[in-house]
Amino acid sequence: MKKYLLDLKVADNVRLHPNYCLLKLTSEETLPEMIPGQFVEVRVDGSSSTFLRRPISVNYVDKDRNELWLLVQLIGDGTRRMAEYRQGDTMNVVLPLGNGFTIPDSDQEEKNLLLVGGGVGTAPMLFLGAVLKSKGFHPIFLLGGRTQNDVLQLDDFAKFGEVCITTEDGSLGEKGFVTNHSILNTKLFDTIYTCGPKPMMVAVAKYAAGKDISCEVSLENTMACGFGACLCCVENTVEGHVCVCTEGPVFNTRKLKWQI
Amino acid sequence: MKNPVMTASGTFGYGIEFADFVDLTQIGGIFVKGTTIEHREGNPYPRMAETPAGMLNAVGLQNKGADYFANNIYPNIKDIDTHMIVNVSGSTVETYVECAEKIAALDKIPAIELNISCPNVKHGGMAFGVTCAGAAEVVRAVRKVYPKTLIVKLSPNVTDVTEIARAVEAEGADAVSLINTLLGMAIDADKRKPILSTVTGGLSGPCVKPIALRMVWQTYNAVKIPIIGLGGISNWKDAVEFMLAGSSAIQIGTYNFVDPAISVKTVEGINDYLDKHGFKSVTEIIGALEV
C-alpha cells in the first residue's frame, strides 16, 4: 500500500481517562485507505525529550466524517504531549504502515471470531470489529482492564458485536484476566485476534494453540522509522529476524518463536 | 554528482523504502544498508533506545549477504537515477575483500563505503577502525581488488580521528566519510537492566552533531582527499555547517526516520542558501569557514 506523509488536523481530542486520550484526526483531502491492524507514525512537536515519531495503531476510521481515530496511552513525554493537542492543531503523520489482520472471506460468515484486547491493545480491535461486521460477521469482543475505568470505548464496541469484559478487581464484567472469561469455555472459536500486553497475548496464544485455533497477534516492538529502514523492531520468527513494522505488526502465532 | 546531499547507510534502507515520500532521483547519492559477504541475522531485540535528540542502535549489520544483494536487491535499484553506493562490512580482512569484489562486479554501483567503524558487531567492524594499523590493513587489501571509488567510513570512537584518516588516505582511499555512531549505552532504572540486548550501542542523531562537526573540521585540516560529513544533520543549515567545516558532500542519517522527506528538503535549503549569499556553486562553501 502506498504510504503518505501528511499534515492532518486535529478534529477532536478527548481525554477518556487520566492515562488515555482519543485523538480524532481529519484532512481536507479524503484520508488514505487503511486496514485494521495497521498503524501510523506520529511526529510529536513541542516535547524536547521526544526525538522519534510515536507508532500508534489505527483505532477506527470514520469514513463518513473522514476521521482517523488514535487511542493514545499516556506513557512518556511524547504521548503526554499528544494529549495536549487541541482542535485545529496540525499533526504530521506517516500512514498507513504495516500489514493488517486477516479478514476471512465474506462467504464464511458463520465463522466465530474472537477479538481480545487488553489495555491500549483494545485500540485496533474496534476498527477490526467494525470491518468484520461490515463484511457480515458477528465478532465477539473480549476486553480486559485493571478496573472498570480502564475498559474504554464500550459504547463504540457495542455497535459492532457482543462485548465480554474482565477486570482484575471485578468492578466490571467477570473478575480476572481475559483468559479467565467464561466465554472461552462455552464457545468454540475459529479465529482469535489479539493485541495487548505481551503476557496477555502469550496466554491467549496458549489457549488458541491448545484448541488448535488460528491466532493472530499484533506486536508493538519499539521502532525508530516504522517502514523497514532502521531494522530496530525485529521479532524472532521461523523466518529469522523480521521487521514488525513491515512484516507485521500482525503475525500468526505459528510464525513466532514464542514459548507457547 | 547532482548535489552534495546523500543518505547514510542503515538509515535509508535500499532507497525504495522511501520512494513514497521523496523523489529518489533528487538525492545526490544513496548509501544502502551495510552489506557483508555472509547472511547476518543481526543482534537480538531490543536494538534501539531513544535518547534526547537522538537514539542508540544495536542492529548489528543485519543483512542477507552480498549474493542476495546482487541477485535480489540490485536489480530493483540499479536503474534509480542517482549514485547507489554500497556500504561494505566484514569480520576479517578476507571477508571485506570478498564482499568488495562481489560489489565491484555490479556495473551500476559506482563506489563502496568501507565500514570499519560499526560499533555493534563483536568481530571486525570497529576493531579495524580504531587503530591506524588495522584501518590501513583493510583499506590496503580492499584497494587491491576494488578499482572504483573507495570511501572509508571512520569511527569517532578514537583519540585522534585525523591519524586514522591519514592512514587510510595513504593506502589509497578516495574519500573518507565521518562520523559513524558514537559508542553509548542506556539503562532502564526500574528493571536495573540495560535497554539494548548488547548493553552498548551506537549513538546518532542531532545530539552528536557538534562532535561530528569538530571531527570533520580536524580531518579537513589533515587530509587532501574529499570528506563526506555526517552525524546528526537534520536540516539544510546543519548541512551547510558541515560543508563550511570541510565536507565536500554530506549524508543525512537518523533524521530520515523523523522526517522521511528531509533529504530533498535539504537539497532545496542548500540551494536557497547559495542564492542568498551569492555563491555560484556549492564548491565555493567547502571548507570556507573563516577562523
Fill in the keyword field for this structure.
A: 260 residues, alpha/beta, seven-stranded mixed beta sheet, B: 291 residues, eight-stranded parallel β-barrel, four-stranded antiparallel beta sheet, 32% helix
Any chance you could write out the topology, listing elements then pairs?
The complex is a heterodimer of chains A (260) and B (291).
Chain A: E1 4-17, E2 20-26, E3 39-42, E4 54-57, E5 60-62, E6 67-73, H1 77-82, E7 90-97, E8 113-118, H2 123-134, E9 140-145, H3 154-158, E10 162-167, E11 174-175, H4 183-186, E12 191-195, H5 198-210, E13 214-218, E14 234-237, E15 240-243, H6 244-247, E16 250-252
Parallel strand pairs in A: 8-9, 8-12, 9-10, 10-11, 12-13
Antiparallel strand pairs in A: 1-2, 1-7, 2-6, 3-4, 3-7, 5-6, 13-16, 14-15
Chain B: E1 5-7, E2 29-35, E3 48-51, E4 54-57, H1 66-77, E5 83-88, H2 93-104, E6 111-115, H3 126-129, H4 132-145, E7 149-153, H5 161-170, E8 175-178, E9 182-185, E10 187-188, E11 193-194, E12 200-204, H6 209-220, E13 227-229, H7 236-244, E14 249-252, H8 255-258, H9 262-276
Parallel strand pairs in B: 1-2, 1-14, 2-5, 5-6, 6-7, 7-8, 8-13, 13-14
Antiparallel strand pairs in B: 3-4, 4-12, 9-12, 10-11
Please characterize this protein's 3D structure.
The complex is a heterodimer of chains A (260) and B (291). Chain A is of the alpha/beta class and 260 residues long. Chain A is built from 6 helices and 16 strands. In chain A, a hairpin with a 2-residue loop joins strand 1 (4-17) and strand 2 (20-26). With 291 residues, chain B is of the alpha/beta class. In chain B, helix 2 (93-104) packs parallel to helix 4 (132-145) and helix 4 (132-145) runs parallel beside helix 5 (161-170). Chain B is globular. In chain B, 55% of the residues are buried. The mean pLDDT of chain B is 96. The A-B interface holds A 2-5, 43, 48-53, 94, 221-236, 240-241 and B 10-13, 17-18, 20-21, 33, 41-42, 44-48, 50-55, 57, 59, 62, 205-206, 254, 256-261.
